[in-house]
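Thread: Modeling a multi-component assembly for a lab meeting

Hi all, long-time lurker, first post. My supervisor asked me to bring a structural picture of a complex we are working on to next week's group meeting, and I have zero experience with this. I have the sequence lines for every component (799 residues in total). Could someone generate the structure of the whole assembly? Inputs are pasted exactly as I received them:
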Amino acid sequence: MQYGHFDNEKREYVIDRVDLPVSWTNYLGVKDLCVVVNHTAGGYMFYQSPEYHRVTRFRGNAVPMDRPGHYVYLRDAKDGDYWSISWQPVGKPLDQAKYTCRHGISYTTYECDYKGIKASQTLMVPMDDAVELWDVRLKNTTDKERRISVFSYCEFSFHHIMIDNQNFQMSLYCAGSSYAENIIEYDLFYEEFGYQYFTSNVTPDGFDCLRDSFLGAYRTEDNPIAVEHGTCSGSHELGNNHCGSLQKDLVLAPGEEVRLIFMLGEGNREAGKKIREKYSDMANVDAAYAQLKDYWENKFAQLQIKTPNEGMNTLINTWNLYQAEVNIMFSRFASFIEVGGRTGLGYRDTAQDAMTIPHSNPEKCRQRIVELLRGLTTKGYGLHLFSPEWFDPDAKKEKKKPFKSPTVIPTVNAKDIVHGLEDACSDDALWLVPSIIEYIKETGETGFADETVTYADGGEGTVYEHMKRILDFSAEQVGATGICKGLRADWNDCLNLGGGESAMVSFLHYWAICHFLQLAEYLGRTEDVEKYQAMRERVGNVCNRELWDKEWFIRGITKNGKKIGTSEDAEGKVHLESNAWAVLSGAADVEKGKRAMDSVDKYLFTPYGILLNAPSYTVPDDDIGFVTRVYPGLKENGSIFSHPNPWAWAAECVLGRGDRAMKFYNALCPYYQNNMIEIRQSEPYSYCQFVVGRDHTAFGRARHPFMTGSGGWAYFSATRYMLGIRPDFEHLTIDPCIPADWKEFSAVRRWRGAEYDIHVENPDGVMKGVQELYLDGEKVERIPVMAQGSRHDVRVVMG
Ligand code: GLC
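Re: Modeling a multi-component assembly
Sure thing. I ran the full set together rather than chain by chain. Output:
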């Protein structure tokens, strides 16, 4: 069953059946003001921090789902009938009202056509102002005059997620609202900077600042009393729950169209006045759209592809990059699943995000890398979850007083922030090494390696030294067989091996060493080259000696010496992570590698992607970890966990098997699940954290869109391994691994200011191998860095 389609020209996903089984999400705002919004205008806004500075309220995990939101109601004065421009909250029957939602890149448009009134509401956040614009248009398509009242509605939140959810004897009396000069001002009395405003470009005919006055007792957003009666009551108060509702009564002549802008922003009434003035001029609204569009088009222009695979084109050219960008901007902590109570940076997640898109967002990737380097301990492990402000020397200089609740919440001691080895994850910091190398290769900023950065527990060192500590930590933290210890967890949060050993981490260690060596060689640091070559060899040998079972690599060894993932096991027999990493890292012997990935195909492949492990665990075993206590087929226990799937695509590319890589790619590709939403349920324009596995009744159901490492990794594996376009320190490598039946594909890649118009031909129907390479018609060995602003033709002949 299909609920919508991709409009690639506009880079929009158009939902034309809005009665979706679950929320389909979008993210608005690219700087400080962010909005998480669904296909019915449900969602919430925050400023900078979803934990400390929430603007509009969200009731997590509630019914009806994902409410309240940023709503616009319309009411016909003639018969009192009312509806909303987004399908919810009023929820008019869909056979009477036509509803559409268009999720675009950092904006969403809701459209409705009901009783001769065509209306739309676009939500977007201009790049330069901390305000959300609600661009509302109404058109009377009848031949009669219509009297329509428009009501906005959003519910303000107490700023801190904690005080928004508990201790109401305090929170209810610290928020106030007032109305003056056409502007609602919302005030968090305890906070020095605790203001927001709601205003519009028109002179309102009514307002309500109190939620309960607008909605009425025993009512919900479905049927607000103010809308039912056709008049707001002018409520405001110091203390209580507040909302932003402005009423405008319009008379629309036949065919007449009007445009109204509501503005929900950060700051006090004075700030609201300035914004009101600015965005009452429609030219400024249109300019804000144009600026946002340019911002995104510039990102997309860094790489655009044209291949025989439409799903891949649509995702790589737009949605997959968008998802990866959203991840690096928002970290993981704002969605309908993560509602802001757990914020900061997850070490491993952020490190991987930063690796995947240095071409479209070098500044943010660099910023994240530096933040993570500061969150590294001198011992060489990273702090699993931390707030970058804690270690930011500039944050201390900031004048703003941090919010301190009058309720005593003990201040964390600086030394308590740095956790010990008992909470260290074995993989966290290893991910950072390739991220740094990829960043340097993309930007050419070699000097970054010798920049000095602090350590979380004191002292400082260069970026290069940080990397060495990371590699040395993993070299020291090995168990009885020489494989890296699993510690609190490895990439798999639910595999808690402690002093037991993790195959995946040893392979990852190998990969990180390879990356570091490339840089050490490039910089001519011979001593390090020798030391780390020896380390790499040791790790490779131990891996091949200790981790091979009969047809695949095991997943690890418990602290009691029991192997995990062997042919003898009835449950958790084959695991994806260790096998994909054995090959992707380059550590596995070629023959073992091939057999390992054949086993992945044989035991783990499903029509929706590759299972994390199979069969799922049913018997708890705390030596293995929490994974054995997760329901079979869900999450880390036998689901199609999306994030490791691209590791398998990359592994197949290392083996040169383009057909298999593409088979794996297509299975997970959400684009190809657009017509099976009755199974998938979630949006087809975003990878989800996981798809329920075959050991569960809901096999094929996808959950947790957008905020997942699969966004970045899918992009990384598809572009760097499958299409094979990857920058090196001084040249651009093009080494595709594609299906044998692809005759050709093309791509435009910008790199260090030059543009490369790449055309790949595959006359012999091979899957890998480059026979000839031409730059502007000349046969060459390599594609060098070309002059800024120049444009070049690159022809690649495979064979
Ligand atoms: C979640 C976590 C990530 C972890 C993965 C597998 O996505 O955010 O850090 O690697 O689960 O457990």
